[in-house]
User: Which sequence fits this backbone?
C-alpha cells in the first residue's frame, strides 16, 4: 500500500468499514509512514469536531418551551388520573400522552448520553458557526491545536516504544544509527552532549546501579530519535528525544506522565520543541523515578543548546 491508496480509504478505516486484511495493510503502512500517521490524526480530529458540532446544533436540541409545556400538561393529567385510578391505567387509556411521555424519556436519555460522552470542558471544540468575537476564534484555534498536539504526542510515544524494542533490545533497525556528534551537525545541536545530560544525574542519585551502555541517533517509522541507553537494576532503559511535529505549545512542560504500552512503561515530559521518553520494563514507580531524576538536567541541556544555535 502506498500513500495515495491510504488516503483514499483513510475515512473508511476510521469508520471500521474495511476488511480485516485491508486493515492489516493500513497498519503496516502507518508503521512506516510518518506523513500518513499525521494525516490520520488530523482526520480523527476533524471527525470529532463535526460530531460535537452536530450534537450542539440548535436543530438537535429539544425546544425548552415545548418540553416545559408538555411536562405541565402531563402533570395536570396525572393529577386528574390519580382521582380516577392509577397512573398506569391513565397511560393505558390515553395512548397519545403515553407516546408523548415516551418521547420525553427518550430525549432525556439521549441528553444524558451526550452529557457523559463529552470530554472535559477545556477539550471541547468550539461551535462551527462563525464567531462574533476575536476571543471565540482564538479559543477555537487553541482547542484545535491542543487536539492535534495530543494526537501527535501519542504517535511519538508509540514510536519511542518501538525504538526501545527494535534498537536497544533487538538491534534490528533498518537504518544504521549515527553518533550524537554527527547528528548534532545534521539534525540539531541538542544531540551533542545529551548522553552526559542523561547519565550524570542518574549516576549522582543511583550511583553504580546505573551503567552507561551507548548513545546514538536512530530512525524508526521515519522518526529520528536521540537515543541514550543505560542499564539500571540489570534492566535496559532507553531515554529517547525527538522533535515535536505539531508546533503547539506544550500543555505543561513540568508534567511527567507514565503509562504502559506493549508491556513496557513510558514516562514522558515535554518542552516547547522536544518530547522526552523514558522506556523500560521496570515497574511504574521506578520508571517515573528515573524520569524525574534526569528531567531538570535534560531541560537545562536543551536551553543551553538553543542558546548556542
Assistant:
Amino acid at each position: 500500500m502506498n500513500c495515495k491508496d491510504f488516503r483514499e480509504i483513510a475515512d473508511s478505516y476510521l469508520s471500521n468499514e474495511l476488511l480485516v486484511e485491508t486493515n492489516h495493510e493500513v497498519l503496516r503502512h502507518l508503521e512506516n509512514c510518518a506523513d500518513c500517521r499525521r494525516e490520520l490524526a488530523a482526520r480523527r480530529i476533524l471527525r470529532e469536531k463535526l460530531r460535537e458540532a452536530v450534537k450542539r446544533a440548535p436543530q438537535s436540541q429539544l425546544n425548552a418551551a415545548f418540553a416545559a409545556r408538555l411536562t405541565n400538561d402531563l402533570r395536570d393529567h396525572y393529577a386528574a388520573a390519580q382521582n380516577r385510578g392509577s397512573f398506569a391505567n391513565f397511560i393505558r387509556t390515553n395512548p397519545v400522552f403515553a407516546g408523548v411521555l415516551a418521547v420525553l424519556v427518550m430525549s432525556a436519555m439521549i441528553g444524558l448520553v451526550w452529557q457523559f460522552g463529552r470530554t472535559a470542558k477545556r477539550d471541547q471544540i468550539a461551535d462551527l458557526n462563525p464567531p462574533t468575537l476575536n476571543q471565540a476564534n482564538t479559543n477555537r484555534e487553541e482547542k484545535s491545536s491542543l487536539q492535534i498536539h495530543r494526537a501527535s504526542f501519542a504517535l511519538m510515544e508509540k514510536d519511542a516504544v518501538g525504538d526501545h524494542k527494535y534498537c536497544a533490545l533487538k538491534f534490528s533497525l533498518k537504518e544504521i544509527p549515527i553518533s550524537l556528534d554527527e547528528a548534532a551537525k545534521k539534525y540539531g545541536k541538542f544531540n551533542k552532549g545529551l548522553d552526559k545530560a542523561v547519565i550524570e544525574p542518574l549516576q549522582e542519585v543511583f550511583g553504580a546501579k546505573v551503567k552507561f551502555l551507548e548513545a546514538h541517533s536512530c530512525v524508526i517509522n521515519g522518526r529520528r530519535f536521540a537515543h541514550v541507553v543505560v542499564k539500571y537494576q540489570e534492566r535496559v532503559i532507553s531515554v529517547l528525544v525527538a522533535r515535536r511535529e505539531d508546533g503547539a505549545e506544550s500543555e505543561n512542560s513540568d508534567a511527567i506522565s507514565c503509562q504502559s504500552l506493549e508491556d513496557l512503561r513510558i514516562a514522558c515530559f515535554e518542552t516547547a520543541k522536544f518530547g522526552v521518553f523514558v522506556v523500560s520494563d521496570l515497574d511504574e514507580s521506578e520508571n517515573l523515578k528515573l524520569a524525574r531524576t534526569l528531567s531538570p538536567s535534560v531541560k537545562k541541556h536543551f536551553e543551553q543548546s538553543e542558546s548556542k544555535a
